[in-house]
Amino acid sequence: MSSSSFSLTLIFLFSLFFLSINAQDLIHDTCKTSSQQDPNVKLAFCTTSLQAAPASHCADLKGLGMMSIRLTRYNITDTRCYIKQLLKNNTKKLDPYVKACLDDCFELYSDAISGIKQAMKSYSSKRYFDANVQISSVMDATTTCEDGFKQRKGVVSPLTKRNDATFQLSAIVLSIMNILQSSSK
Ligand SMILES: *[C@@H]1O[C@H](CO)[C@@H](O)[C@H](O)[C@H]1NC(C)=O
Ligand SMILES: *[C@@H]1O[C@H](CO)[C@@H](O)[C@H](O)[C@H]1NC(C)=O
Fold first, then answer.
1. Residue 2 CA: distances (Å) to CA of 5, 11, 13, 140, 157
2. What is the total count of domains within the chain?
3. Which ligand is nearest to the CA of 52?
4. Tens-digit pLDDT profile for residues 2-52
5. How many C-beta atoms lie closer than 10 Å to residue 13's C-beta?
6. What is the CATH number of the domain that holds 89?
7. Whose CA is nearest to atom 5 of ligand 1?
8. pLDDT on residue 22
9. Domain range holding 28?
10. Mutation test of ligand 1: which of 42, 76, 78 has the most ligand atoms closer than 8 Å to its C-beta?
11. pLDDT tens digit string along 70-91?
């Protein structure tokens, strides 16, 4: 290897190194801001979720926002399916109160699926105000679902973790849109 191609290789390796540092920084910085803006967002949950998303290391902030919406959508779809199974598998065993809550949650999550699809469209066309309204209603759906179980003593929600994950992912989307909007002004 000649010394010039050696130094080119070095420069190349260094740029790779710094590029990946920058991508890590973007996820970390975004998550830090998000967890500061909304105390419900846990820094570790945010970074783990975004880092696991395919190609998130190459994404800019707008891209990270879309990825978060997609993660939220997967979460909602998965939870809706899970509720369906809970209802189907336990027809006889379910406490009537729990069953009523699960029925409500199923409705809420069904509406949330169309909400998140609309949010995706709004976000792509930079209609952040609309996307904000749509994502906020997804967050409301998760808290309404969870609150149903809380209203009766001795009832444990089987959906706490899932409601919480969807809530956090949605909150991450909201803060990314916040940053996008304030940086474009
Ligand atoms: C929800 O999304 C988070 C982050 O991507 C993931 O860790 C979790 O497993 C998902 N939960 C469901 C039920 O899809
Ligand atoms: C429901 O039953 C199916 C088939 O037995 C099982 O694979 C699935 O894990 C069950 N789901 C729940 C949420 O209990």
1. 5, 14, 16, 63, 66
2. 1
3. 1
4. 555 656 555 555 554 545 556 668 999 999 999 999 898 999 999 999 999
5. 10
6. 1.20.140.40
7. 49
8. 61
9. 3-183
10. 78
11. 999 999 999 999 999 999 998 7
